[in-house]
Amino acid sequence: MTTLQSPRCLISHITSFKKHLTPSFRKALPSSLHLHIRRHSTPMASTDATEVSATENSETTSDVLVQYVVLRRDLIDSWPLGSVVTQGCHASVAAIWSHKDDPHTIDYCSPTNLDSMHKVTLEVKGEVQLKNLSEKLKSNDIAHKLWIEQPENTPTCLACKPYPKSVVSLFFKKLKLCK
Rounded distance, CA 104 to CA 57, Å? Predict the structure, then answer.
């Protein structure tokens, strides 16, 4: 995963991002992101125009819409592979369908993007870590679906709705890629 290199990159990216916000899209953003965008809506005085322009171009092309799917390692080791994949599919579809009117989801599922979706599949150690991650996402207004398999009532995985990578990757950066 790539991360933003400096605060200047973040500020110029948010400035670029803010230019494209429609009123209906702004309403869909979590309130914490509104504050963040307002706080950093102008570039730093010491940033020269060439640096901002280059940063905006590189950040815009690398800030793809992405859906994170997180599976439990203990289930990967003990359940049939197909069953674990099915859990991830359930969570992914549920997260997308629950947010079908969200601008990012609409863009992610648009006919022009349908063949180039970006998903990152990560893993956590077990149920406790999965529940903790869900609580962390919930407390930060990151929309996601914690899939609970029935009738066992077992949390098996989670998936977030599609987000720009720069908005959501921070919450998943400590997790390992699922192998």
Answer: 20
Q: In whole numbers, what is the pLDDT of the chain averaged over residues?
A: 77
Tokens of 124: 């956590």
Q: What residue type is 21 in one-letter code? A: L
Residue showing tokens 């171009």: 57
- How far is it, in rounded angstroms, from Cα 55 to Cα 50? 8
Q: How far is 146 from 13, CA to CA, in rounded Å?
A: 30
What share of the chain has pLDDT > 70, as a percent?
A: 65
More confidently predicted of 32 and 120: 120
Considering only CA atoms, give the Rg of the chain: 18
3-state class of 164 per DSSP? strand
CB contact at 8 A, 159 and 144 = yes
